[in-house]
Amino acid sequence: MELKKLTSFKHFFYLFLAIFLCFSLTRNILRMFSTQSRLDDAQAKLTRLKGEQEDLKKELQKMESPLYVEAQIRNKLGLAKENEIILVFPEDDLVRRLSSRTSSSSFYDLPEPNWKVWLNLFF
Questions:
Q1: How far apart are CA 55 and CA 66, in angstroms?
Q2: Are 96 and 104 in contact (CB under 8 A)?
Q3: CA–CA distance, 28 with 20 (Å, rounded to integer)
Q4: How far is CA 75 from CA 53, 55, 65, 98, in A?
Q5: What are the pLDDT digits (tens) for 47-94?
Q6: Are the beta carbons of 88 and 74 closer than 8 angstroms?
Q7: Within a 13 Å sphere around the CA of 9, how many CA atoms are in the beta-carbon half?
Q8: Residue spans per domain, the chain
Q9: How far apart are CA 36 and CA 32, in angstroms?
């Protein structure tokens, strides 16, 4: 009787061990797939960030060039070289407001729609 209990206990133990190992193996396989997915995402992000870094390095080199610095000084500070003439043109809307109404109205107005032209022709 005791031998039967012992074999029953062994079978129960082996069954429990097999179920535990199956769950553990399944959990580890799922964890491995999720880790692989995270690794792929990290590699894609790394590639994207390396591209951004290259773009920023090129932009930095461009900004450190004397031509870029000169252009920024000319455009933002309004400075010029000696004996250089600077022409400043007013903006279009300011020119329209200051110019006479007769010249601007014929130039900037749209033509009459077709239905109005036909209406004026017959009536």
A1: 19
A2: yes
A3: 12
A4: 27, 24, 16, 26
A5: 999 999 999 999 999 999 999 998 898 888 888 888 888 888 888 888
A6: no
A7: 6
A8: 21-122
A9: 6
* pTM: predicted TM-score of the whole model, two decimal places: 0.45
At CB < 8 A and 24+ separation, what contacts does 83-87 make? none
* Distance (Å, whole) CA 90 – CA 75: 16
The two tokens of residue 55 are: 């773009």
How far is Cα 99 from Cα 90, in angstroms, rounded to an integer?
Answer: 12
Contact 109, 103 (CB under 8 A): no
Torsion of CA 44, 56, 75, 69, to 10 degrees: -170
SS3 100: coil
First to last CA, the chain: 122
